[in-house]
UniProtKB/TrEMBL annotation:
<feature type="region of interest" description="Disordered">
    <location>
        <begin position="82"/>
        <end position="102"/>
    </location>
</feature>
<keyword id="KW-0812">Transmembrane</keyword>
<feature type="domain" description="Phage shock protein PspC N-terminal">
    <location>
        <begin position="127"/>
        <end position="193"/>
    </location>
</feature>
<dbReference type="InterPro" id="IPR007168">
    <property type="entry name" value="Phageshock_PspC_N"/>
</dbReference>
<keyword id="KW-0472">Membrane</keyword>
<feature type="transmembrane region" description="Helical">
    <location>
        <begin position="303"/>
        <end position="325"/>
    </location>
</feature>
<feature type="transmembrane region" description="Helical">
    <location>
        <begin position="153"/>
        <end position="173"/>
    </location>
</feature>
<feature type="region of interest" description="Disordered">
    <location>
        <begin position="374"/>
        <end position="403"/>
    </location>
</feature>
<dbReference type="Pfam" id="PF04024">
    <property type="entry name" value="PspC"/>
</dbReference>
<feature type="transmembrane region" description="Helical">
    <location>
        <begin position="179"/>
        <end position="195"/>
    </location>
</feature>
<feature type="compositionally biased region" description="Acidic residues">
    <location>
        <begin position="86"/>
        <end position="102"/>
    </location>
</feature>
<feature type="transmembrane region" description="Helical">
    <location>
        <begin position="337"/>
        <end position="360"/>
    </location>
</feature>
<protein>
    <submittedName>
        <fullName>PspC family transcriptional regulator</fullName>
    </submittedName>
</protein>
<feature type="transmembrane region" description="Helical">
    <location>
        <begin position="242"/>
        <end position="274"/>
    </location>
</feature>
<keyword id="KW-1133">Transmembrane helix</keyword>
Length: 403
């Protein structure tokens, strides 16, 4: 049993199954998006909708009581390329032939000469996460689709190998890089969007966005959705996806712990810069920290850079997470994704350099103050009053005579 609804197209009512309506609605929306940036695109999209209405009316005339999804697929197949809509169906005159030629000019895809350069290869390709072949977000499968090289399994094995290699290199240079690879993967997970339209799915695979390809993609996606609805998504029933998701949760915990530590560090630095340390924390008011105000004045730029870069390290992933969780938001463009990644990497570099400088210069300032303070006390003359030895008899008896 299927849910059935009634739609109104150009004054005519049609009973249509809900899944058929969703397919038809996606198709018309895709056509409108495709022709929106072309000359005369609104008229072409309107003509396509009229053509769909005509074919639906024919189905109604033939006695079809409810439009099924198979009928919608057949209609999409009949329309095919909108440039091939039979404009001569009614009058067959020169005017209709001219309209058909206008359609062809409007949707003609410019085919440039083959470009073997990197920019030519990247033209028309967009990086998305693949929702149809995902285990942990679909990043690796999206990279496989984007490059067109290798399989998603090969990319997953390569990423795992790279994470272990990075951790091993960290041990050689005495740095803890165990979680760095996982952290980078999580950032990519949040930055790279999912394809939300048929056009996005075509761009993900590097295919040309043409009406024929859009039609084929819509139909294939509908068939896949109906098949998964009947039989369930068997890819997610194994133990391996569940195990990998548990690993992802375990890997996310240190990330959020580091974020919390970073937030505490930012708060501490802000308190110090604002000069609240001496009033809020008694330890900072002691003589051992009297060098601190002068140090803040001399190195304010470096401290400010450390604070801003640390805030950016935390704020950029949070922004990307919020943007990704918004269901109705547009996916981030390729330029925006690259800009966020580069800005985040730059923030990490600035934070490491500035914090290292703050730590080294702060330690040196404290040592210099300590050396200066104690050397000054060592060079001062001893002003303790002279006390002569006692000469009374009791003291003499206590000390005794040496002879």
């Amino acid at each position: 049993m299927k849910k059935n609804i009634t739609i109104n197209m150009f004054g005519q009512l049609y009973a249509i199954d809900e899944d058929a309506f969703e397919l038809l609605n996606r198709y018309l929306d895709s056509m409108k998006r495709y022709f929106s940036d072309k000359e005369g695109g609104e008229e072409i999209a309107d003509d396509i909708e009229h053509r769909v209405a005509e074919l639906l009316w024919q189905q109604k005339e033939e006695g079809t009581m409810a439009i099924s999804i198979e009928v919608i697929k057949e209609i999409i197949g009949k329309i095919g390329n909108p440039t091939e809509i039979d404009s001569q169906e009614e009058n067959g005159g020169q005017e209709e032939q001219t309209a058909a030629e206008d359609y062809e000019e409007a949707v003609e895809v410019e085919e440039d000469k083959p470009d073997n350069s990197l920019f030519g290869w990247l033209k028309g390709r967009y990086l998305y996460r693949d929702p149809n072949d995902k285990v942990l977000g679909g990043v690796c499968s999206g990279m496989a689709q984007f490059t067109g090289k290798g399989t998603s399994l090969g990319w997953r094995l390569g990423v795992i190998l790279a994470i272990f290699i990075l951790a091993g290199m960290g041990k050689l240079i005495h740095l803890e890089l165990v979680w760095t690879g996982w952290l980078l993967y999580m950032i990519l997970w949040f930055l790279i969007p999912l394809p939300k339209t048929p056009e996005d799915r075509l761009r993900m695979r590097g295919q040309s966005v043409t009406p024929e390809n859009i039609n084929e993609e819509i139909i294939n996606e509908s068939v896949k959705a109906s098949t998964e609805g009947r039989h369930g998504n068997r890819r997610g029933n194994g133990c391996l996806p569940l195990l990998l998701k548990l690993v992802a949760v375990v890997c996310l915990l240190p990330f959020f712990i580091l974020v919390g530590i970073g937030m505490l560090g930012i708060i501490a630095l802000l308190i110090a810069v604002l000069g609240l340390s001496a009033t809020m924390f008694p330890y900072f008011a002691t003589e051992s920290m009297t060098w601190f105000p002068n140090y803040l004045t001399d190195h304010a730029g470096t401290i400010f850079t450390a604070i801003i870069s640390t805030m950016a390290i935390i704020a950029i992933p949070i922004y990307c997470i919020v943007r990704a969780l918004r269901g109705n938001g547009k996916p981030m463009s390729a330029q925006g994704t690259v800009a966020c990644i580069l800005l985040w990497i730059l923030s990490i570099v600035l934070a490491i350099v500035s914090m290292t400088s703050v730590a080294m210069t702060g330690s040196k300032a404290e040592r210099d103050y300590y050396d200066l303070h104690h050397s000054r006390h060592d060079n001062e003359p001893d002003t303790t009053p002279y006390e002569p030895l006692p000469t009374d008899s009791s003291s003499v008896d206590t000390i005794g005579w040496q002879g």
